[in-house]
C-alpha cells in the first residue's frame, strides 16, 4: 500500500462542488481584495476563538510579523520563545531586530517549559511567544500568570492549533494576539497562502489593520510604514466553508490519533495530551532512538513520514549569525534526533491507519 504524508486532492474531490460555487460567486462579484467575504471570515474566526477582532493577512508568517510590530517589538527587545518550532516564529522577531531568547521544551508535549521562563526575564524582555506546536496547547495558564507578574505581552503562534483548547478556552484567546496560518497543510488550509491575527484589544486591532495596508487607515494617507499583506477574497470564501466543518476536521484527526495511541507499540513514545487540554493533532509525532531506521523501513513499505524538526532554531546558522549566542537546550536537541511524524489528516482512511500501525509494530517485533 502507498500512503502519502498528505493528499489534499481527496478533500477537494469530496467538496469540489461547493468550492467551485464559492469561487464562482467571487468572480460574479468581481471583488478580489478584502471585502465582505474577508470580514465575514474575520468575524467567524474571532467569535470561534472568543475574541472581538480578526484581521485577515497574507500568511501565518505575516500574522506573526504584524503582531510583533503592533506589539512594538523593535531593536534589542527580547522575546522569550521556543527553539522547537517552524523557522517563521523566530525569523519574524529577528526581522524586527528583536532578540529571540530561547527556553527549552517539555519532553512530553514539545511546548515551552514553563519552569524556565522566569529565569530568562530581563529589563529588555517585552513579550513571550509560545507556540502550540503540533496542535497541543502550551501551558497558557502558567504563561499568563508570568506575563501578568512582569507586565509582558503574549503573542500566541496558533499556526498549528486552530481549535485547540485548554478547558473551554481556545488557543489565541490568551495573548494580546493569536496568529493563524491557512497554509494548505494546516488543519484549516486554503488554496494558497493565507493567515489571520486575532485579538481582543481594539487598539491592537486598529494597529494591525493599518499595518496590513501600508500603514494607512484612510486611503492614500499613511501614518507609518506598513506592509502589503491582505487575505485574498477567494481564499476567505473557501476558508468560510472549511470553518463550518472545523470540529469535524479536528475530530477526525483526534480519532486517527486515538487509534495510533491504542495500537502502536509502547516501544516508541507516543504523543501526550495534558489533562483538560484538547489536542488537535496537526501532527502525530512519535519519539524513538531508531528514528532513521524506522523512517527507511516505512518508506520501503510505501509509507511517508516526516521529520519536524531536524534542527532546533538555536542551532540554525541563520539565527546564530545574528544572535551570536550559544545555547544548550538538551530536550529540544534530543527531540530533534528522535522525532518522526506520521501521516494524519481527515481523509486518511482507517485501512491506511491500520496498515501504518501494522508496519511500525512489525519493525519493533
Ligand atoms: C506554518 C507555520 C508558520 C508560518 O505560516 P505561513 O502561513 O506558512 O507563513 C508559523 N509558525 C508555525 C509554528 C507554523 O507551523
What does this 3D model show about the protein?
With 365 residues, the protein is an alpha/beta fold. It has 2 domains: 8-243, Aspartate Aminotransferase, domain 2 (3-Layer(aba) Sandwich); 246-364, Alpha-Beta Complex (Aspartate Aminotransferase, domain 1), CATH 3.90.1150.10. 40% of the residues lie in helices and 14% in strands. The chain is built from 12 helices and 14 strands. The strands form 4 sheets. It has a 7-stranded mixed beta sheet, with helices on both faces. α5 (140-150) links the parallel β4 and β5. α3 (60-70) runs parallel beside α4 (88-95) and α3 packs across α6. It is globular, with a radius of gyration of 20 Å. The structure holds pyridoxal-5'-phosphate.
Short description, anyone?
The chain is an alpha/beta fold. It has twelve helices and 14 strands. The longest helix has 22 residues.
Strand-and-helix sequence, N→C? HHEHEHEEHEEEEEHEEHHEEHHHEH
Largest sheet: spatial strand order = 1-9-8-5-4-2-3
What is the tally of helical segments?
12
Please tell me how large the radius of gyration is: 20 Å
CATH-wise, what's the superfamily of the largest domain? Type I PLP-dependent aspartate aminotransferase-like (Major domain)
Keywords:
2 domains; Aspartate Aminotransferase, domain 2; binds pyridoxal-5'-phosphate; alpha/beta; 14% strand; 365 residues; 7-stranded mixed sheet; Aspartate Aminotransferase, domain 1; 3-stranded antiparallel sheet; 12 helices
Can you lay out the helices and strands and say which pair or pack?
Layout: H1 8-29, H2 36-49, E1 53-57, H3 60-70, E2 78-81, H4 88-95, E3 99-102, E4 125-129, H5 140-150, E5 153-157, E6 165-166, E7 169-170, E8 177-181, E9 195-199, H6 202-211, E10 216-218, E11 221-222, H7 233-243, H8 246-263, E12 277-278, E13 284-287, H9 291-300, H10 317-323, H11 330-338, E14 339-342, H12 350-364
Parallel strand pairs: 2-3, 2-4, 4-5, 5-8
Antiparallel strand pairs: 1-9, 6-7, 6-12, 8-9, 10-11, 13-14
This protein binds pyridoxal-5'-phosphate (PLP).
Residues 59-61, 85-86, 88-89, 131, 157, 159-160, 181, 183, 193, 195 line the site of pyridoxal-5'-phosphate (PLP).
Amino acid at each position: 500500500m502507498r500512503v502519502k504524508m498528505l493528499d489534499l486532492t481527496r478533500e477537494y474531490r469530496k467538496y469540489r462542488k461547493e468550492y467551485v460555487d464559492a469561487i464562482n460567486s467571487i468572480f460574479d462579484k468581481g471583488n478580489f481584495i478584502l471585502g465582505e467575504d474577508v470580514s465575514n471570515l474575520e468575524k467567524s474566526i474571532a467569535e470561534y476563538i472568543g475574541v472581538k477582532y480578526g484581521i485577515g493577512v497574507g500568511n501565518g508568517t505575516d500574522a506573526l510579523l504584524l503582531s510583533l510590530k503592533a506589539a512594538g517589538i523593535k531593536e534589542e527587545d527580547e522575546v522569550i520563545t521556543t527553539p522547537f518550532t517552524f523557522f517563521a516564529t523566530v525569523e519574524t522577531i529577528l526581522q524586527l531586530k528583536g532578540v529571540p531568547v530561547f527556553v527549552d521544551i517539555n519532553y512530553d508535549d514539545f511546548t515551552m517549559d514553563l519552569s524556565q521562563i522566569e529565569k530568562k526575564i530581563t529589563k529588555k524582555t517585552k513579550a513571550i511567544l509560545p507556540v502550540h506546536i503540533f496542535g497541543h496547547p502550551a501551558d497558557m495558564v502558567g504563561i499568563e500568570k508570568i506575563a501578568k507578574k512582569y507586565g509582558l505581552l503574549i503573542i500566541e503562534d496558533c499556526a498549528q492549533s486552530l481549535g485547540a483548547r485548554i478547558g473551554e478556552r481556545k488557543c489565541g484567546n490568551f495573548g494580546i494576539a493569536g496568529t493563524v496560518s491557512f497554509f494548505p497543510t494546516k488543519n484549516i488550509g486554503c488554496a494558497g497562502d493565507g493567515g489571520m491575527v486575532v485579538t481582543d484589544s481594539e487598539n491592537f486591532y486598529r494597529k494591525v489593520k493599518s499595518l496590513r495596508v501600508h500603514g494607512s487607515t484612510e486611503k492614500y494617507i499613511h501614518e507609518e510604514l506598513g506592509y502589503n499583506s491582505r487575505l485574498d477574497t477567494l481564499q476567505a470564501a473557501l476558508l468560510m466553508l472549511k470553518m463550518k466543518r472545523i470540529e469535524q476536521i479536528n475530530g477526525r484527526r483526534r480519532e486517527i490519533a486515538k487509534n495510533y495511541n491504542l495500537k502502536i507499540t509502547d516501544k516508541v513514545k507516543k504523543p501526550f495530551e495534558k489533562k483538560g487540554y484538547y489536542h488537535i493533532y496537526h501532527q502525530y509525532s512519535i519519539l524513538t532512538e531508531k528514528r532513521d531506521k524506522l523512517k527507511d523501513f516505512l518508506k520501503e513499505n510505501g509509507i511517508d513520514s516526516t521529520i519536524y524538526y531536524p534542527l532546533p532554531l538555536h542551532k540554525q546558522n541563520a539565527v546564530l549569525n545574528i544572535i551570536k549566542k550559544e545555547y544548550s537546550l538538551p530536550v529540544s536537541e534530543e527531540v530533534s534526533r528522535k522525532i518522526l511524524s506520521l501521516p494524519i489528516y481527515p481523509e486518511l482512511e482507517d485501512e491506511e491507519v491500520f496498515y501504518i500501525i501494522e508496519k511500525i509494530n512489525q519493525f519493533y517485533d
